[in-house]
Amino acid sequence: MTTWTLARRAQKMNPSVIREILKITEKPGIISFAGGLPSPKTFPIAEFAAASERVLREDGQAALQYASSEGFAPLREHVAASLPWNVDPNQVLITTGSQQGLDLVAKVLVDEGSRIMVETPTYLGALQAFTPMEPTVVSVASDEQGVDIDDLQAKMGEGADAARFLYVLPNFQNPTGRSMSEARRAALVERAAALNLPLIEDNPYGDLWFDAPPPAPLTARNPEGCIYLGSFSKVLAPGLRLGYLVAPASVYPKLLQAKQAADLHTPGYNQRMVAEVIKDGFLDRHVPTIRALYKSQCEAMLAALEKEMAGLDVQWNRPDGGMFLWVRLPEGMSAIELLPKAVEAGVAFVPGAAFYADGADPRTLRLSFVTASVEQIGIGMAALAKAIRATLGG
Amino acid sequence: MTTWTLARRAQKMNPSVIREILKITEKPGIISFAGGLPSPKTFPIAEFAAASERVLREDGQAALQYASSEGFAPLREHVAASLPWNVDPNQVLITTGSQQGLDLVAKVLVDEGSRIMVETPTYLGALQAFTPMEPTVVSVASDEQGVDIDDLQAKMGEGADAARFLYVLPNFQNPTGRSMSEARRAALVERAAALNLPLIEDNPYGDLWFDAPPPAPLTARNPEGCIYLGSFSKVLAPGLRLGYLVAPASVYPKLLQAKQAADLHTPGYNQRMVAEVIKDGFLDRHVPTIRALYKSQCEAMLAALEKEMAGLDVQWNRPDGGMFLWVRLPEGMSAIELLPKAVEAGVAFVPGAAFYADGADPRTLRLSFVTASVEQIGIGMAALAKAIRATLGG
């Protein structure tokens, strides 16, 4: 019997309590507000079918061959041209979903014990991507406007222990749905530059605004100090695994080498399909339909919350876009303890504790308003309120 | 100006001299035996087009949605059923190319300074995938039969410094084209088990045999002691980036978590396309056509070598399959120094030095016989011989 010696990092990659808990949300027939799954109604299947047919007919051999690690040139050019600051296509690296961008960033910037900073709460997948490189993750306080700049400075560290970066989602954040205000963005970029603190800006949801686009990205304000991560998962479909990063010339070559070592390149066929779908301004016509759908679903969820939570000390925010809203349960309640009861009542969510590196607020939970239908949202919210009332009464 | 502090591992990820040299092989019009590119003539474009159409029509929403990190169940089942030992589909993890399998293995099994062993020479991409985890790479001597078992034992290390694994390509190895004999396989598996040494068996080329299939995989002989890496890149097409690994239950959960953190999952659309193409025994009809093509190209290259290298002290092997053969230049010559002259004469190869962790034999070089046509092979070999003669005469 061979005994396998695991790397130390593998010990840190334990199945989280949360992940185990979430398995119960996979019960068939349940109304789930748990997953961060875009509405499949928005996937442009006919356009993908036409693009696939054309790519294979006109460029099949190249689409199916090994390709460069940087990515398909027309797609890199499209990404560069679509961003609201001056981006050279040579700064764009196509990634296998923006999740891979997080993996590459960690590989290139994080040593064992390196201090890195995250908003709190933050995207669970980022914590998972950073963990294998064994950083010391420091949570920076955040409020409705975004990252607390003074807390950031207080936790920055000095000399060799200075934070390698701050990871931040300024637009319709996962998990809270919050967006960073213009004033806070300006202050953050200024303070970060003064502190010599690189920013990792993750922007999967920025196009999903309801009434007005969010303020300019952090990276647009200081491109040399930021790595920007973007994705086609939320505006086209996640199943093709297509994301990208934009990095300054001082870091790009290392990210490229890490990319090559990780999977050689992102599927060229997928890159060509997406380049084909978007080349004639398709996203300008398509994304507004996603915005309208998600806005109506968000409004339905807010209305259902108003109705069903009446009289309960439950709080929630009103997102300006994205996929999620953030709920706080009554004093003394735990979202983790509530979840099995909610599942029994037919509804699922993600306990907020999943999204904290430390110091979780046990009363919080995340609701996705994009996957379930408006009708399901109504039924699900009633079930959730019932589970809360039963817990309070019990 | 923000100063980016890079991880130590990033310093080790330097652009290799070899990679810089290989840029000259990208000169337009050159006959290249350098790349490990499958012949695009073998890509089943019509079958992919039909599969894509069907997948999007029948299962479009699921194909384009987020999916499980383990992979698409029918594809995992196909992989398990196709392997010549008893494999539970739950042991199969679909990866974004088998290159990703190497990345995951390194993350889960390698600490900074961990001893790992490789054949010498070995696959350059594996060295690149392992490097970010900062192992101490130990080269194990190899001969025409495979890994030298006594050298393996001598370099195994003890206690905390015992090697975490041996990485080995038993079939039509990259770069040498060599295959491990039945006797050597049996001896290696026995000795590895006695030494408590896990084996990482990489088998991208095993199906590409010319006259007879290679002996049974190492993993078939001791599944609990091996991780097996496979790929659809050489039997279908590399541009979809589809590979897999098979791992024992004691390691699988950690590899799965590393996979989830790396890119969430491999594109579900691509997995469904391949599952659709292969479901009715397509590979049984298709792979023999690749074998026949590659055998004829290999024979053409061997004949051209016989003809063009006559009178030169140049040695080469006769592979039983795969994509590569291995050449040794006359005493005193360096393949790295020869390359610019060969490129000037219109032909490219990869200097063997690219494939050694240390102690490179400067006289060696790798030729791929699968990308160029038979006619190009003739012209290219004449050009290579001319460059060698010019060097010897100069």
Automatic annotation (TrEMBL), chains A, B:
Keyword Transferase: yes
Keywords: Aminotransferase, Pyridoxal phosphate, Transferase
Domain Aminotransferase class I/classII large stretches: 46-374
Keyword Repressor on entry: no
Necessary cofactors: pyridoxal 5'-phosphate
Domain of life: Bacteria
Pfam family, one: Aminotran_1_2
Gene Ontology biological-process entries: alpha-amino acid metabolic process
GO terms of molecular function: pyridoxal phosphate binding; transaminase activity
Record-stated family: Belongs to the class-I pyridoxal-phosphate-dependent aminotransferase family.
Oligomer status and interactors: Homodimer.
PANTHER family in UniProt: AMINOTRANSFERASE (PTHR42790), KYNURENINE_ALPHA-AMINOADIPATE AMINOTRANSFERASE, MITOCHONDRIAL (PTHR42790:SF19)
Protein name from the UniProt record: 2-aminoadipate aminotransferase
Source organism per UniProt: Hydrogenophaga crassostreae
